[in-house]
Amino acid sequence: MTPTTEHVHGWRRWLFGGYVLVAAVLVAVWGFSLIVPIKNLIEERMQEGMVAVANAAAVALQSSDLPASNVLGRIAATDDLRLTLIASDGTVLAESIEDDGVMKNHADRPEVITALSGEVGYDRRVSETDGVEYLYVTVPCAYEGGTTVVRVSRTMKQVNELTTNYLWMSLGLLASALAVAVAAAWFASRRAGMPVKRLEIMRTDFVANASHELKTPVAGIRLLADSIGQASADGDLEMVKLLSERLGKESERLQSLMGDLMDLSRIEDRERASAAGAGCDFGSVVMTSVEAHRAKAEGEGIDLTLHDRLPVGARATISATDATLVCDNLISNALAYTEEGSVRVTLAQEGDFAVLEVADTGIGIAYADQERVFERFYRVDTARSRESGGTGLGLSLVRHAVSRAGGTIKLASEPDKGSIFTVRLPLE
Fold first, then answer.
1. What is the reported pTM?
2. In this predicted model, what pLDDT tens digit does every residue of 265-307 receive, in sequence order?
């Protein structure tokens, strides 16, 4: 092995391992740092509901002529709850599940002591009766002229199940981040056969761009995680809900980046180019893509139309996978950069070529940017692209897919008037 080859293989191993390690550490720290705050939040919300049930039971006991055990049993039957009526000396007067006679005296229970003082009591512990961990909530109650306590209890099973679901979600995001890292590292290291100087330049550019794109959603996820923890500690449930929605969007963005990197590595893999060269019914692919975006267009008030003049069954020299990628990216971009107006998709035959045209009435592209829009990670409007979930790889993927199929893509655009992307693909 020559020194040059050793150098190339050395940085390939370093790059691959570095991506995986950084992604694993960042996402693992984020995921596991939220387990306790989320579990506490779930527990607090359950306790709020249990307080409402306890107060309702207290009112029902005062107004009903039925035996206390029947009242408590009916209320408990509506949910996975256990209700108990306790006298001021700790004696269990009625219970929704157990027989009154087998219940121990509850005078020393912390939540009962708190309720007898006139406040709402809370506790969480393993029950001496059945050995199951419960959440307990108590409220004072005037029953048959005496001071009593209504206690509502619920097993921790549901809290633990919801927390476990969150943990699995965190592990899923961790797996997504690792997949992005592996794809990015593999794609960069794949160029080891090029001259070292050119390879180093490409490695530096790609690592800088890919690291930035990976770091941004991970950093956003971490910041949102900290904010959710703080909002949870403050009891601000509305803020927790808002931040959770934003957290979901950041995870979707991470998954989108992973998908684009995998598509890019697949398209540029020359060893598999011939296997991907099988043609497809281009008109059918375009129609499917348009329909897939119609709901989004209607939701944003944009008129999305398809004018198909390509002969039925005409096959272009591009795989169905690559054709879908081309159509989806062009239509998605047109919708993302059009605030009002229309997106028109036209399909026609010109000689031995299928011609796809995607025209919009959006913000357009400045002349200085038009030559660079097909570069990897290049964004004309960074803020808008990030807001719409763009990764900066879409048009680069389109160009590579079209080029590999022997076609061409052109852009005509004027600022504030819209853009037209024209794809020409050979017909079989």
1. 0.43
2. 555 554 344 444 578 999 999 999 999 899 989 999 999 999 9
% of the chain exceeding 90 in pLDDT: 26
Predicted confidence at residue 392, as pLDDT, reads 65
Residue 255's alpha-carbon distances to 14, 39, 133, 214, 388, in angstroms, are 24, 25, 38, 10, 14
Largest CA-CA distance found in the chain, in angstroms, rounded: 96
* Contact by Cβ (8 Å): 354, 285: no
d(CA 409, CA 16): 33
Among 11-20, 171-180, 188-197, name the one with the lowest average pLDDT: 188-197
d(CA 137, CA 157): 16
Task: Give the span between the Cα atoms of 266 and 407, in whole angstroms.
Answer: 18
The position carrying tokens 């995870």 is 251
79: domain CATH number?
A: 3.30.450.20
- The pairing of beta strand 133-143 with beta strand 280-281: unpaired
Tell me: do 411 and 344 sit in the same domain: yes
Long-range pairs of 114-122 with CB within 8 A, sequence gap ≥ 24? 114/138, 115/139, 115/140, 115/149, 115/150, 115/151, 116/88, 116/140, 116/147, 116/149, 120/51, 121/149, 122/47
Token representation of residue 243: 């931040």
**Sign of torsion over alpha carbons 65, 69, 70, 71:** positive
Residues 165 and 151 in one domain: no
